[in-house]
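Moderator note: this is an archived Q&A kept for reference. The question asked for a predicted structure of one protein chain; the sequence and the answer are reproduced below.
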Amino acid sequence: MNIVLSLPKDLVKRVGKIAVDRDTTLTSLVREYLSELIRQDAATGRERRKQEALERSFEQFQFRVGINLGSATTSMSAREFLDTNILVYAYDRSEPRKQQIAQGLVRRAVAGENAASSQVLGEFAATLLHKLAPRAKPEDVIALLDAFGPIKLVPLDGDVILRAVQRTLSTDCTITME
């Protein structure tokens, strides 16, 4: 498709020199730039949609847990690893302060800054489906897990557990396995 663009002469002259230096044409440079713009916009759109889905989940799903989840550490010096309590608190409206902190950690996880494990997601689903009164509907839990899709999952293996135990030597954190 041919189109006509109105560009300042100085701009065309300068970009024309760049095209010659790169052994290409002005048309190729414009095509490459527009293609890159589309890729960037698509990536930005995907990230925005992920973030919007998470925010909708915070608004749509609110529970009163009413069970003792213990204490949770809210900050660490290394990459933060979400545990089940953090995910539950993110939707527990009975403790607004914990909910606010947990939602911030979950937002960071969706943005790729924090990680979780599939075990944590399974425990979260089991908590909502079996420990709440009334129990969460399976379709609601599915929607929540879908919103967590972008979270990086770390496979739990012996090395991960070993590093976690080593971390307890230098920090004030504990490890619990249920």
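Archived answer notes: Confidence is low (pLDDT under 50) at residues 69-78.
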